[in-house]
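Chain X:
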Amino acid sequence: MKKLLLLIVVLICLGPPALAQDEDKGWGIKVSGFVKTDIFYDTRQSTASNGLREGHFYLYPDNVLYDEDMNDLNANPSFHILNIQTRVRGDIKGPDAFGARTSGAIEAEFFGTGESDINGFRLRHSYVKMEWPKVTLLAGQYWHPMFPAENFPGTVSFNTGAPFVPFSRNPQVRFVYNPGTFLSLTMVAYSQRDFTSSGPDGNSSKYIRNSGRPGMHLQFRLPAGDNLTAWGGVDYKVLRPEIKTSANIETDATVGSLSAFASLKLKAGPVNLSVMGVYAENGSDMVMIGGYAATGTPDPVDLSREWTTLNTASFWADISTTVNKTHLGIFSGYCKNLGAKEPVDGDFFGRGSNIDHLFRLSPRIMVTEGKLSIAAELENTLAAYGTTQPDGRVADTGSVTNMRLLLSFIYRF
C-alpha cells in the first residue's frame, strides 16, 4: 500500500507528461524539493519522546539516570546519520473557479508517522486555495496558525526552533480577509492529525474529535512598510479526555485551553531579525512543553474527573545575514513552565511536566553553490528538571545540557 501511494504521488508530481490531464492550458504542476543528509553528534542521550525519530527532531536532553555506582547513564554521547527530511513538493495551478484564482499543493517527506515508521512516506501539506481580490480560502492540511509560517527561524536542524516555536501541521479551513489596507485578518478552524494531544489512552486526535468542535484561531497581520511586519493571534481548543470513567459511566468533562502569540519580523539592510513571544495552555500538540492534568478528587460515585491546563511561556529570537554565498545566523530560545490553573492530582498528560525551564543557543553557517548547500550548526540545549508541585510548577531543579554538532548536505531541485 505504501509503495502504491508513493507511485501515485510521484506520477502526480511528474505532471501532465505522466498522467493524462485536461488540455486546459491554465493547468500545471511545478515540482520542487530537496535531498538532505543530516550528520549529528550529541554529548547526551535523548529518548524517543525528547528526540523524535532516533533523535533527528531534537527537543531537549534526558534527565539524569544513575546506575548502582551513581554514574549518570544519560551522560553518554550518540552519533547518527539520517536522510528522512528529504522532501518532494508539487505546486498545482489551475483555471479560475467561482470567480477565484485556484491553486493547490502536495508536499511529503520520508520522516514517517512514528518511531516504527522511520523512512516512511508522510504527508506534510495537502490543500486547495481559492483567491479573490480581498479574500483567500484554504482547505486542507497546512501549518497550524500558531506556527510563524512567514517568520520562522532559519535553523539547520529540522526542529525549526521547537519546543520554543509552536510546531504543528493540521487539517483546517483558513479564511483570510485582506481589504488592501494596512491590516489583514485570518480565521482558522482546525482538527489534529499527525500532531495530536496526549490523554489517558496516549497521543490521539480523538480527544479533540470527541469534543465535537474544532480548534479556533483568530490572527492579524500588520505590515509597516517593506521592512517591518507584525503578527498577533489567539487560539482556543477544547479536549474531551474521556467518554467514560473507570467506573464505566459516561462523562462529558472537557478541558479548554487559550493560547496567544505576538511576532515581529524586521529587515535592516543585510540583517534579518525575527522574534516571537508565546503563551500556551496545553501546548503539547504544538511540540511545546505543557499539557493538562486531572484536578481535585474524583467523584466518589461515578469517578468522574475535572481537568486543568499546564501552561507555558516561550520567547525566541533569530538573527541572520547573507554575504555572497554564505549565510550566518544564530537562534536563541527560552521557555518557562508556568504551572496549572488549578491544583493537580498527579495525572499529567503532555510533555515535560517535570521541567521548569528550557534554554537553547544555536549558531549556524551555510555555504551555497548553485543548488547545493553545506551547513553546520552547534545546538546547545539546557533543560532544568525537578520535582513537580501540586500547582504544576517545578521546584528543586537541576540542569542538564546537550551539545549537538550538526552537519548537513542539502541538494535542491
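Chain Y:
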Amino acid sequence: MSIVKMKKMHLLGLKVEQDMILDAIYKMGTVEIVDITTQGQDNEVHQDRFHQKLEKELSELDSKLNRLKFAIDFLKPYVTEKNPLLYGKPKIKRQELDDLLSREEQYLRVVEVITELDQRLSRLKAEESKLHSRIEMLSPWKSLDIPLEEMGPTRETDFIPVVIPIKAFEGFRNGLDEKNVLFELVKIGESRDENLCLLVYYRAQKSEVQDVMKEFSVSIQEFPGLSGTPEEIIAGDERRLAEIERERQSIAGEARALSDQRFAFEVLYDYWSMVREKKRNMLKMTETSRTFCMTAWIPETMEQTLRQKIGKLTDSLYIEFSLPEEDDEIPVLLENPRLVQPFELITELYSLPDPKGIDPNIYMAPFYFIFFGMMVSDAGYGLVLALLTGLALWKLKLAGQGKKLVQLLFLGGVSTFMWGAIFGGWFGDLIKIKPIWINPLENPMAILVLSFAFGVIQIYTGLLLSAYKNIRAGRPADAFMDQGLWIVFLSGLIMLAFPQFGAVAKYVALAGALGLLLTQGRTQKNPLMKFLSGLLSLYGVTGYLSDVLSYSRLLALGLATGVIAVVINTMARLVGVNAIGFIIMVIIMIGGHIFNIAINTLGAYVHSSRLQYIEFFSKFYESGGRPFQPMRIKTNYVEFEEV
C-alpha cells in the first residue's frame, strides 16, 4: 500500500545472447528500459551502424504490420468473431505460431490479393460516384430529345442549352425581344431556382444574345464528351451502376472466401508487434561489435527473481543494481490491497504521485467509498448498480482502467446500498422500509452536520499526512508549526460551536492563533514582516471554511436523488388507473429510475472525485509522477501461451 521502490539495473552482456536475455526480460514484464544512447559513446561509428540497421528493420516491420492490419480490417465485415470482452482472446501455442510463421509468405501473398480487391473496390467506387454525379446533372435535361453531340453551331444558327434563374426568365425573353433577336426558347426542365432551356438563335446576332445573357446571369450548360440524348446516357449509366453492384458483390464473395485467413493475420500481427516492441527497446541500448549494454528500472522486490532467471540462461554477463540518484526520473508503480486498487483510477486520472511522495489511495479510498454512497443514497439503486457491475466483472474479460472503473462502481453500489438502507430510500418511496437511522427528507440538517463532520475528518487527515511528510523529511518543527498549530486553531474554532466546550474552546483557538502568528512569518528576516506574515496567515481560515462547506454537496446530491425518485413514482402512480395506464406506469418507473441511477451515479463519481482533488489532495499531495512502463507482452487479438 505504497509507491513501489525502484532500483536501476545496469546489464552488460554478449551480443550473441542479447535476444535470449531480452526474451526472458520481456516475459517477466517488470523491467522498463532506459534510453542511454544520448550519453557519450566511445564507439560512435559502430553505434550509428547498429542503429541504422535496427531502424531499417523497424521500417520493414512497420510496412509489414500496416499491410497485415489493412487485411484484418478489410476482412472484418466478412467474419463472425467472438467478442473478446465475453470470451477473452484466443490462446496460441508455440507450435501453432511456428506453423503460421513457416507459411508466412503464403499469407502475405493473400494480403496482396486482398490489396488488389480493395483497389478494385476503390476504382468501382470512384466510377460509381462519377456516374451518380452525371445522372444528377442530366436528370433535369431528360426530356431533351436532341443528341448532345449535335448541340452547338450550325451554318446559320446556334443550338445551346442554357440555365436561366427563374426570377430572370421573363426578363431574359423580353431583353432578347428588345434587341430584335430572332430566337426560340424551349423550356426543358427546372430545378428549385433555375429553368433549364434550349436556346436557338441566328449566329449573326450572337453578340446581342451574349449581352442579354450577361445582363440576366444566364449560363451555358456544358456536356463535354457526351453523346446521345440525356435519357439514353442516363439509361446507359444506370445499366453500368447495376454492373458495378454485381462486380462489388463478386468482390465481396472473393473476400468472404478469404475470410478464414483473418485469424492467421491477427496472430502474425500480434507476433510482429511484439518483435517491433523489442527492437524499439534495443534502440535504447548501446553496443560494441561483441557486447551490448542496457540500463533499466525494476521494482526492488523483483531484483532476485530477475537475477535467478537471467542467471539460468548464461554466466557471461555483468549485472548490477543501484539505488536511484537524486536527479533520476524515477517511474511510479503503485502497490495497494485489492479493495484499494479500484480507487487508483481516481489518482491516475488526476496525476500519479511524485516518486518520493505519498501514495494517497489507501487514505482516500474510505472517504471516496463513503461519499459516493451518501451522494446516491438509495438502497434499490445501490443494489441495481452492484448487481450490474458485478455481472460485468464476472462475465466480461476486463483489464486496465476499464476494469478499475467497473470495480469502483461496484464498490460504489455497495456503499449506496448501505447508505440507502440507513436513510430508508428504496427506489425513492416505492418500497416502504423504515430507515435504520434517519430520513434525509425529514431531517436534512442532521445529514448536513454529518457531511461537515466527514469534511473536517478528511481535512484533518490531509493535514496529518502533510505533517508526516515533514517529519519523514527531517523537519519535525515544520510539521508542528505548519500543520499542528492549524489543527489546534481549527479544533478550537470547531469547539466554539458546542456550548459545553465554550470555556476551553476559546483558549485552544487563541493558542493556535497565537502560535500561527508567531511562526508563519519565520522565513522573513525583518521583524515587522515576520509579524505581518503571521497575521496574514490567519486569513487562511477562510480557505478551510470554504473546504468544509464544499462537503455540503454530500447532502445536496443525496437529496436530489431521493426527490427525483419520489417525483418519478408520483408521476407513475397518476397514470396507473387502468390497464393501459398500468403499462404506462411501468414504463415511466423503469425508464425514470434508470435515468435517475445513471445521472446520479455520474454525479457521485464526479463530485466525489472533486472533493479528493480540491479539498483533500491540496493539503499534502505532490503529483507529477511518470507511470512505470515495463517491456511486456501486449497483444491486440490473441494470447501467446509461450513465445
